[in-house]
């Protein structure tokens, strides 16, 4: 199959990660055909992708017949299941891992050749069981399971860091004191979290600006990354640097107030926040390294550059804190 007739199916094409990939692939000069999978083809985001040339296909990941049809004739498959979807947290019900394994099987049986999965490393494995993060451990197991399916020519795990987008999402910002969206009662934009550990740098990525292009880069050269887990980040900075940068670009007062320990972080019954507690425990144990390993910016930048080349665009640096915050919070 040449680039011009390769079909790439994008699961979660209307979500943060999938949409970023679909938008980048739609500008590829290879002529990839983008098949956008959604449960609701009539949504604004699905319609936007259709207007840009994607084939929008209605399918529910839990429906085997839907997924078989959606994956027919597909060369490359991007899979990102949302492990905080309430349906995978019903006691006794199917889990995110069950869904991931099922979709691995359906895609392998359908003849998919390149399987790229939104993954995590396993904190349990790294720490010898001392700092489990069950949601991350489960994604890691799905990636390993996919590598066992010999029908795939290449299986790649793409492991995104903390989203820059969380800083423009009210639910996230409210969980950490309101910074950088809502001032506290003293008029200060206060960020309060447990400490990351080690040098205190938090590995962060702009999904919209960088992650989609990194994934596009993986689809351009899948054999090069076969059986690898690629950490995806654009910058890493401390929380002190974060609040200082906000004040610098916005002119507004901000401060970082560390929590005494990860255990005192309020979770309000949210599975996302419970997992974040576990993640702080993990990164504190692992010297601040969320990915398990030291940061690798070169691979990220090379992947982005290859994707941009494929779109006829000049290379660009990865999106860093200064760029992201200037764009979203800078004084106009
Ligand atoms: N926030 C962070 O800092 C961070 C960092 C790393 C990883 N993550 C992980 O990223 C994942 C979330 O990804 P995201 O941000 O791209 O999510 P998102 O924006 O909420 O998008 C989820 C997508 O999944 C699709 N979807 C949901 N259920 C489906 C089903 N049953 N069948 C088919 N499609 C379905 C939705 O499509 P339709 O509604 O159109 O069907 C939607 O496009 C989570 O596992 C999260 O933990 C987050």
From TrEMBL:
Boundaries of every NmrA-like domain copy: 5-283
Keywords noted in UniProt: NADP, Oxidoreductase
Record bears the keyword DNA-binding: no
GO annotation, cellular component aspect: nucleus
Gene3D superfamilies cross-referenced by the UniProt entry: NAD(P)-binding Rossmann-like Domain, UDP-galactose 4-epimerase, domain 1
Any Pfam family hit: NmrA
SUPFAM superfamilies: NAD(P)-binding Rossmann-fold domains
Domain of life of the source: Eukaryota
GO function term, MF aspect, one: oxidoreductase activity
Transmembrane region(s): none
InterPro entries: NAD(P)-bd_dom_sf, NmrA-like, NmrA-like_oxidored
UniProt keyword Thylakoid, yes or no: no
Similarity annotation: Belongs to the NmrA-type oxidoreductase family.
Protein name (record): NmrA-like family protein
């Amino acid at each position: 199959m040449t680039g011009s007739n390769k079909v790439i199916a994008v699961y979660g094409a209307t979500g943060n990660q999938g949409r970023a990939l679909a938008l980048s692939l739609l500008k590829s000069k290879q002529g990839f055909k983008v098949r956008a999978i959604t449960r609701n083809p009539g949504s604004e985001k699905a319609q936007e992708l259709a207007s840009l040339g994607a084939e929008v296909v209605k399918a529910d990941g839990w429906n085997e017949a839907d997924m078989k049809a959606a994956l027919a004739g597909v060369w490359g498959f991007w899979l990102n299941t949302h492990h905080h979807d309430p349906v995978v947290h019903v006691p006794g019900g199917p889990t995110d891992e069950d869904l991931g394994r099922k979709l691995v099987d359906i895609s392998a049986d359908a003849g998919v050749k390149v399987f790229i999965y939104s993954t995590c490393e396993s904190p349990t494995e790294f720490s010898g069981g001392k700092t489990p993060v069950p949601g991350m451990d489960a994604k890691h197991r799905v990636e390993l399971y996919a590598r066992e399916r010999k029908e795939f020519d290449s299986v790649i795990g793409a492991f995104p860091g903390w989203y820059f987008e969380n800083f423009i999402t009210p639910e996230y910002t409210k969980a950490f004191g309101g910074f950088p969206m809502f001032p506290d009662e003293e008029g200060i934009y206060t960020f309060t979290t447990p400490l990351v550990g080690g040098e205190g740098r938090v590995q962060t990525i702009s999904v919209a600006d960088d992650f989609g292009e990194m994934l596009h880069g993986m689809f351009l050269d899948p054999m090069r990354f076969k059986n690898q887990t690629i950490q995806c980040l654009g910058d890493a900075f401390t929380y002190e640097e974060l609040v200082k940068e906000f004040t610098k670009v916005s002119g507004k007062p901000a401060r970082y107030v560390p929590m005494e320990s990860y255990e005192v972080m309020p979770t309000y019954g949210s599975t996302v926040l419970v997992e974040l507690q576990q993640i702080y425990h993990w990164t504190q144990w692992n010297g601040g390294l969320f990915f398990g390993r030291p940061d690798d910016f070169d691979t990220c930048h090379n992947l982005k550059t290859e994707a941009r080349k494929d779109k006829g665009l000049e290379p660009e640096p990865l999106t860093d804190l200064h760029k992201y915050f200037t764009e979203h919070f800078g004084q106009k």
